[in-house]
Automatic annotation (TrEMBL):
The lineage of its organism: Bacteria, Bacillati, Actinomycetota, Actinomycetes, Kitasatosporales. It holds the Pfam family Beta_elim_lyase. GO terms for cellular component: cytosol. Residues 49-279 form the Aromatic amino acid beta-eliminating lyase/threonine aldolase domain. PANTHER family: L-THREONINE ALDOLASE (PTHR48097:SF9), L-THREONINE ALDOLASE-RELATED (PTHR48097). GO terms for molecular function: L-allo-threonine aldolase activity. Keywords: Pyridoxal phosphate. This is Threonine aldolase. GO terms for biological process: glycine biosynthetic process; L-threonine catabolic process.
Length: 373
C-alpha cells in the first residue's frame, strides 16, 4: 500500500467513526447503506428497460423543476455535456465553444471535446472568476455556443450575480450563439441568485444537472432543453454507449435526492456562510501566518480554504485531528499553483447543520495544535 492509499484509508475510517463532521465524504458510504436508500415506492413496479418506467418519471421530474420541455437521463455528466455541445455545433454550424479554461471539459475530460466530437474551444478569460459580458462580446472569432459552469468549481464554486448572468447570456445572443449551462451544481445556486430553478434555467438553451454532486445520488445526470434537442441527444446517447439496459438504481437514488436533499440545500448554503465566517475568525486568532477563504462569503454550500503549508502536512494534521478528537473539519488538501501553498474544499451538508461558531473555533484549535505542535 502506498502512502497516499494509506492516507485515504485513514481519512475514510476517521470519517466513518467521526462524532462531528461538516459533511460525509462520498468514499465513506458502504454498499449496505447505499442499498438501504433505494427502497422503491412500489416494489412491484416493473424494472426499467432501456430507460422507461422510473427513469421516465425522473426525466419528467427534472423537466418540471427546470421548466424545460424535456429532459434525458445520462449515465454521466461528461457524456451529457459532450453530447449537448456536439448537438449545438451541428445546429449552429459552428464547432467553436466559448468556455472558461477552468471548466470541467477543459480540466477533467481528457480533451474529449476535440478528440471525440471535433469541437474547438476559446476562452473569454483565463482569470479565476466567471467571464464578463464584455469579454464574451469581444472574443476575436465567432463561436457557436457559450458554455457557463454554474458555479465554477475550480475557481471556488463562484457564481456571477443575476445581472451579470443576464448580461453574459445577452452578449452570447448578440454574437448569434446559443447558451449551455453546466449546472452540475445548479441545484444550490437559487440562494445566490435569489431566483427559482426554472427562472435560472430559462436563460439557457440547454442545461446539464448532476444527481450525485449535490443530491447524494449514486451517479447519473440529465440534459434538459427543448423537445427537439433532447430527442437528438437521445440518439447520440445511444451512439456513445449510454443506452444502458437497467438504470433503476441510479434513477431511484436521484428521485430520493430530489425529495430529500433539494429542499435542504438553502439551509446548507446559509450554514456554509456561518461556518466560513467562524472559520475566518478562528484562523485569524491562531498561529497560521495567513489564510484565504474563497469566496469570503460562499456563493453555495461549498467553498475553498488556502493555507501556506505543504499539502501532505495539512492533510496529516487533519487526519490526526479526526482520529484523536472524533471531529472532521478538513478532508484532503491539494498543492496550489504557488509553491508551499495548498487548498482544500469545504462542503456543508446535513451533518454540518449542527455546528455552532464555538464548534468551528474548537475544531480549528485542535487542527492548528497538530499543525504547530
Amino acid at each position: 500500500m502506498t502512502g497516499d492509499e494509506d492516507l485515504t484509508k485513514r481519512l475514510v475510517a476517521a470519517g466513518r467513526t467521526a462524532r462531528r463532521t461538516l459533511t460525509r465524504s462520498l468514499r465513506e458510504a458502504t454498499v449496505g447503506e447505499l442499498l438501504a436508500g433505494l427502497a422503491a415506492p412500489d416494489p412491484d413496479e416493473p424494472a426499467d428497460v432501456y430507460g422507461d418506467g422510473v427513469v421516465t418519471r425522473l426525466e419528467e421530474r427534472v423537466a418540471q423543476l427546470l421548466g424545460t420541455e424535456d429532459a434525458a437521463f445520462f449515465p454521466s455528466g461528461t457524456m451529457a455535456q459532450q453530447i449537448a455541445l456536439r448537438c449545438w455545433a451541428g445546429r449552429t454550424g459552428n464547432p467553436v465553444v466559448a468556455l472558461h479554461p477552468m471548466s470541467h471539459p477543459e480540466m477533467w475530460e481528457g480533451g474529449a471535446l476535440s478528440l471525440v466530437s471535433g469541437l474547438r474551444t476559446v476562452h473569454p478569460t483565463k482569470d479565476p472568476r466567471q467571464p464578463t459580458a464584455e469579454e464574451v462580446a469581444d472574443l476575436a472569432e465567432p463561436f457557436g455556443t457559450l458554455m457557463l459552469e454554474l458555479p465554477l468549481r475550480e475557481a471556488g464554486f463562484l457564481l456571477p450575480t443575476w445581472e451579470e448572468l443576464e448580461a453574459l447570456v445577452g452578449a452570447a445572443r448578440e454574437r448569434d450563439a446559443v447558451v449551455h449551462f453546466d449546472g452540475a451544481r445548479l441545484w444550490e445556486a437559487t440562494v445566490h441568485f435569489g431566483r427559482p430553478l426554472e427562472e435560472i434555467a430559462g436563460l439557457a438553451d440547454s442545461v446539464y444537472v448532476s444527481f450525485y454532486k449535490s443530491l447524494g445520488g449514486l451517479s447519473g445526470a440529465a440534459l434538459a432543453g427543448s423537445s427537439s434537442l433532447v430527442a437528438e441527444a437521445r440518439v447520440w446517447r445511444h451512439r456513445y454507449g449510454g443506452q444502458v439496459f437497467r438504470q433503476f438504481p441510479q434513477a431511484l437514488s436521484a428521485l430520493a435526492g430530489l425529495d430529500r436533499e433539494l429542499p435542504r440545500l438553502p439551509s446548507y448554503v446559509a450554514q456554509a456562510r456561518r461556518v466560513a465566517a467562524a472559520l475566518g475568525g478562528a484562523l485569524a486568532d491562531g498561529p497560521v501566518p495567513w489564510f484565504r477563504i474563497n469566496p469570503q462569503t460562499p456563493h453555495t454550500h461549498q467553498f475553498q480554504l488556502w493555507l501556506p503549508y505543504e499539502a501532505d502536512r495539512l492533510t496529516e494534521a487533519g487526519v490526526r485531528t479526526a482520529e484523536e478528537t472524533g471531529t472532521v473539519l478538513f478532508h484532503r488538501w491539494s498543492p496550489a499553483a504557488a509553491p508551499g501553498v495548498s487548498m482544500t474544499e469545504l462542503t456543508v451538508t446535513a451533518p454540518g447543520l449542527e455546528w455552532t461558531p464555538q464548534d468551528v473555533e474548537e475544531a480549528v484549535g485542535a487542527f492548528t495544535a497538530r499543525l504547530h505542535p
